[in-house]
Amino acid sequence: MRDFKAGRDINVGGDVHIHDESSQPKLLVLCTNEELFGERIHRKSVLAGERKRKFKRLASAWLFSGVVLAGGALWFYANGQANFSSLLLGLGGLAVAFASVKVFEQPTEFEQRQLAALKEIHHILRERGVE
Fold first, then answer.
1. How many whole angstroms separate alpha carbon 114 and alpha carbon 100?
2. CA gap 93, 88 in Å, rounded
3. What confidence tens digit (pLDDT) does each residue in 107-129 have?
4. What is the pTM of this model?
5. List of E strands, the chain
6. Phi and psi dihedrals of 119, rounded to 5?
7. Most distant CA pair in the chain: distance in Å?
8. Dist. CA 6–CA 40, nearest whole Å
9. Which of 103, 113, 111, 112 is nearest to 48 (CA)?
10. Closest to 101 in 3D by CA, of 52, 70, 55, 48
């Protein structure tokens, strides 16, 4: 409210409430088509960033699991149990693969919100005949 300057000649007999509508969230239905296109681009970039963060966390889990499995396999191989070493690598690799597919394909709550907003934008634009 730095632009609001009152001199000494303004006399208000009660409380003054100023509602600044610019900081209030706007419903997607009330947005113009241009605003919806901009919002869709923003939501897609936010979703892509979230998926990158998810992939980075998953990659660190892959690295840790791979090091542990390789270390265990080398230890078993050094102790003369080559068959168990191969079994550990094979089953461990499958377990890591299945776990990573489950984690990567299941959207988080944040991703679900972004996908729902994208879907709503698509429906609104379709109702308006733009898409």
1. 22
2. 8
3. 999 999 999 999 999 999 999 99
4. 0.66
5. none
6. -65, -40
7. 95
8. 41
9. 111
10. 55
